[in-house]
Amino acid sequence: MALQTQIAAMKHSKQGTERATADSGRRAHTKERPHSLETRTEQVLTGESIGVGVAIGPAFVVREDPAPDLRERLSSLDRDEEEGRFRDAVIRSISQLGKLQARLALLPEDSQFEIGSLLDVYRRMLGPSRLQRGVIRRIAEGLSAEVAVFEETEALAQASHPPQGARAGSGEDAAAARRRADEFREIGRRLLRNLTRTPFLTLRGMPDGAILVTESLRPSDAALIDPSRVAAVVSEEGGATGHTAIMLRALGIPAVLAVAGALDAVAGGAQVVVDGDRGRIVVDPAHDTLVEARGAVATYAQDRQKLGRMRRLSSKLASGEKVLLQANLELPAELPLIAQSGAAGIGLLRTEFLFINSEELPDETTQFELYASLVEAMGADTTTIRVLDWGGEKPSEALERAGLSTLGETPNPALGLRGIRLLLKHPALLETQLAAILRASAVGPLQVLLPMVTVAEEITAARDIYERVARRLRRKGVALAETLPPFGAMIETPAAALTAGVLAHHADFLAIGTNDLTMYALAADRASADAASLYDARHPAVLRMIADVVNAALQHRTPVSLCGEIAGDPALAPLLVGLGLRSLSMTASAVPRVKQVIRSVRYEECVRLGRRVLAETDSRAIMKVLQEFGNAEVG
Ligand code: PEP
Ligand code: MG
């Protein structure tokens, strides 16, 4: 080997041992590359750009597990046992989907919606469906559960989208049919893995900060990726608008999908630059490429750091008024995000997660331990715990077993026994939760929040229970906060908004839930793709209701906050302040950007903006006013 080439190779090899920081949010990572005197020329591969910046790291190549052996067609078990195996696999699959559903809380709302509806499709397939009936019929014919599942899901997939394009149709129809076929195959794969106990995509042995290189990554696998461990993702399959891409973007993981030949081109441990913005990867990058990539990583990190610095800055308008910014929390796993975001407490703890993934109702001690740990973690900042808001639209094994779920029995779950209505119908559920919350009140400041209130009697009935539970605990000598924590009501229905004055009289505080308020005010389902264009919190009806609720609360000197998704939209923050709000609770990751905007605007400007917006009569005009305000701010 010529001297020049040897030097180049040694330099190249040294680069592999250098520290490469994937981005500011991730920890730095190192990867020893075996020293080699062999020269590697860099190789550039392109694919679909998913965004979220640039990452550098060692490749961790994961190949699909081989498909289960389906040669043994006939079952050696009796029919009931074989059917039992299938039913076990269904239960395991449903429980896994429930866990994925719970993780959706970490994503922005549009991604939650996309992935959530996909998970709903899977869950429906696993319910009493054609798929289930077909598998059981095949098992009755003597087939093993594995073969029955494979053949039934394949038959359904082919019926949806016949091979060779045997069915004519427009491009969109064909794409929808293909997606449907993929959904059947995906659920079939999940059932097969559970039947054969084959592990799902396993990242065991993957060094932190590695680049995951894989043939295909399903949304359900992507949802389980820990962004603090995986620097980037490269996959041979997938597309920029697929569910996997949405999930990766939401998790902040740089990725390039649809990279043909990635598995052949990338050896395990090879250094890879993933440029998620330009949709290209560079394997064994040359010196200049690496320098450029490091520059890009640094720039991205600086941008994030700027926002990170917001954490320490106070949340005040440029004119000095304080605006409380808190975080919504749907899973305890989000707790570190809250600390990083600089949120001043939890403005909304959705307690549904306690009921989603468990077969039994959580008892008082289980709930107490959880609430107490969150309250303790928040220190002097308040935690607002919302009691169970069960809508009947999500399956909960625990509630079903306890005979409390109305799932499937009501034609329109959003208008049925939701939230406080369900709790007052089954007061034991509310008593247990209130007892756990009251016990946690000895640990630190908290508040109790009631969901889906429509009449004042719901607040008074729940408060009676609250006070009775407190008296019982005190009689038993259980430590509670000296004065009972504030007892508040959510304003999520037009009925509540239009009678906010009455509710403000009965509640210690109000929290406006614009996600539901928008749905009920505009009669547009928040989870329906068909109604998505109608669902807009900037509709004058919604904004006027917000303004009225705030005024009613101020008149009664009742504190009021807003905790729907719009609280986390930086473009709306000045408007919400202008409508009179001083307390907003949002997804933790939104706090720094909202704070940045809050710090840049003056109170009088916000009030003027509020007045201008309330004078408009349609959403489009309101959007224009908001845009002009935003442009003026930037300019
Ligand atoms: C809301 O409806 O705005 C709200 C905060 O509650 P959830 O999104 O949990 O229904
Ligand atoms: Mg709600």
CATH topology of the largest domain, what is it called?
TIM Barrel
Structural class: alpha/beta
What is the average of the pLDDT values?
83
Biggest beta-sheet profile: 8 strands, mixed
Strand adjacency order, main sheet: 1-8-7-3-4-5-6-2
Indicate the radius of gyration in whole angstroms.
27 Å
CA(first)-CA(last) distance: 59 Å
Tally of DSSP β-strands: 16
Percent in strands: 5-15%
**Helix fraction by DSSP (H/I, runs of at least 4):** 40-55%
Cofactors, ions and other ligands in the entry: phosphoenolpyruvate, magnesium ion
Inertia-based shape: globular
CATH architecture name of the largest domain: Alpha-Beta Barrel
How many domains comprise the coordinates? 3
CATH level 4 superfamily of the largest domain: Phosphoenolpyruvate-binding domains
Kindly provide the name of the CATH class of the largest domain: Alpha Beta
Unreliable runs: 1-37
GO molecular function: kinase activity; metal ion binding; phosphoenolpyruvate-protein phosphotransferase activity
Catalytic activity: L-histidyl-[protein] + phosphoenolpyruvate = N(pros)-phospho-L-histidyl-[protein] + pyruvate
EC number: 2.7.3.9
Subcellular location: Cytoplasm
What does this structure look like?
Its EC number is 2.7.3.9. This protein has 635 residues and is an alpha/beta fold. It is globular and about 75 Å long. Residues 1-37 have low confidence and may be disordered. Strand 9, helix 11 and strand 10 form a beta-alpha-beta unit. The protein contains 25 helices and 16 strands. The protein is 48% helix and 12% strand. The chain starts with a helix and ends with a helix. The strands form two sheets. The chain has an eight-stranded mixed β-sheet with strand order 1-8-7-3-4-5-6-2. It has an eight-stranded parallel β-sheet with strand order 15-14-13-12-11-10-9-16. Phosphoenolpyruvate binds at residues 348, 350, 389, 492, 513-516, 563-564. Phosphoenolpyruvate binds next to strand 10 and helix 20.
